[in-house]
Write a structure and sequence with these properties.
This protein is 41% helix and 26% strand. The protein is of the alpha+beta class and 195 residues long. Strand 5, helix 4 and strand 6 (146-152) form a beta-alpha-beta unit.
């Protein structure tokens, strides 16, 4: 199968990418966003194509997507106003507080990966690696010295991909007392040195 990875995504694929995003990160985001139509709407409207890549097959079918975060912004960039419009004022306040726990300050010269998410029917076909290639190539073109990401410790499939690619574990983020709210115990911080 031919995999065509391109910067951004087609507007017609926005809803499908939001669905893939929720499928991949629903466990991590469910405590704050839920997994219903409201979560889908928040994610769909917050996706910024200039910070992402999409993978298509030879017929133009969406296979997956990847997002990045730089000092200029990130792939999922929903605001407090977006949260309030969908969840109401009270819902936006507590959801925003939980989502803030996922934010990471970027060091100069570092590109953060906002995730890779591949359609279930396309897993194991090289889509994730192709998207990762695009992220790393973009980081190199922007003279970044490192690509970083966080992956839930229990996500063995994703960890195997990143380790195979050359990422190394550089830290652990523990959720501590927020574990019941966050839905997971810890995430590994991984980095790929580009220097």
């Amino acid at each position: 199968m031919k995999i065509d990875v391109r910067p951004g995504f087609r507007e017609a694929d926005r809803a499908a990418i939001a669905e893939l995003f929720l499928d991949a990160f629903g466990r991590k985001l469910a405590p704050s966003l839920g997994t219903d139509d409201r979560a889908h709407r928040f994610i769909a409207q917050g996706l910024r194509p200039e910070f992402g890549f999409s993978a298509l097959d030879e017929t133009g079918t969406l296979l997956g997507a990847a997002g990045i975060k730089t000092e200029k912004g990130g792939f999922l960039s929903g605001t407090y106003s977006d949260l309030r419009a969908i969840y109401g004022t009270f819902g936006a306040i507590w959801r925003g507080a939980i989502l803030d726990q996922f934010e990471r300050k970027l060091a100069p010269g570092v590109m953060q990966m906002d995730g890779i998410f591949v359609a279930a029917s396309a897993r194991g076909l090289g889509v994730g690696t192709s998207l990762l290639d695009a992220v790393v190539w973009t980081a190199r073109m922007n003279r970044c010295r490192e690509v970083r990401l966080e992956v839930i410790a229990e996500n063995a499939r994703a960890q195997a991909l990143y380790l195979r690619y050359g990422f190394r574990r550089v830290g652990v983020v523990k959720t501590g007392l927020l574990r019941p709210v966050m839905g997971f115990r810890e995430a590994d911080t991984m980095a790929l040195d580009l220097s």
